[in-house]
Amino acid sequence: MMLNYFFTYGTIRLGSDITVKENLQKNAVLLNMGFIKRAKLYTIDGLPAYVQEGNDDDIVVGDIYFIKDQAFFQELDKYEGVEYGKPPKEFIREKVTAHLEGSEIECWIYKYAQPIPRHAEWIESGDFLNP
After folding, report:
1. For residues 16 and 68, which has the higher predicted lDDT (pLDDT)?
2. Residue 20 binned pLDDT confidence (cut-offs 50, 70, 90)
3. Average pLDDT over residues 119-128
4. Given 3-state DSSP classes, what are the helix, strand and coil percentages for the chain, each rounded to the nearest 5?
5. Of 5, 23, 37, 83, which has the fewest CB atoms closer than 10 Å, so is most exposed?
6. Rounded to an integer, what distance in angstroms lies between the CA atom of residue 98 and that of residue 61?
7. What are the tens digits of pLDDT across the range 29-41?
8. What pTM did the predictor assign?
9. What is the radius of gyration, based on Cα positions, of the chain?
């Protein structure tokens, strides 16, 4: 079974104004907002970075999409700088369990794959658009 759900927490979310977001709207269906438990969101040089760490009170808020065509993930990978076979990678795409309207759904997410730098700022609300 192919995984067709995508959790976006940063620059692609509703309210952002970028080309990849326009392509996302053509190639995907927005289900709703959701969240990930035991996760934190940081701002690193003005850009968001998700990491799977924290306690039960730590969440990351984002939008959950159903991707119509798996090939679109290649465009998302390029946008996020995921280059296969060229370590060290800044971001990697991995599976995560998100919470959506009282249920759980397995989604792809772009995780920050490096140690969090000292100058990073933790977004305590877990919401990049409403820090």
Report:
1. 68
2. confident
3. 97
4. 15, 40, 45
5. 83
6. 9
7. 999 999 999 999 9
8. 0.91
9. 14
Residue 59 sits at φ, ψ, to 5 deg, of: -135, 160
CA–CA separation, 91 and 31 (whole Å): 24
Hey, what amino acid is at 20?
V
Judged by DSSP in three states, 22 sits in helix
The per-type count for the chain, helices as H runs and strands as E runs, is 2, 8
Could you read off the pLDDT of 68-88 as tens digits, one per residue? 999 999 989 988 888 666 677
Residue 65 and residue 30 in contact, taking contact as beta carbons nearer than 8 Å: yes
Decide if 112 contacts 48 (C-beta within 8 A): no
Q: Which two tokens stand for residue 72?
A: 């679109």
Query: What residue has token string 């490096």?
Result: 114
Closest by Cα among 89, 78, 72 to 6:
72
Determine contact, residues 120/43, Cβ cutoff 8 Å: yes
The residue among 33, 36, 85, 27 whose CA lies nearest residue 56 is 36
Does the pLDDT of residue 63 top 90, yes or no? yes
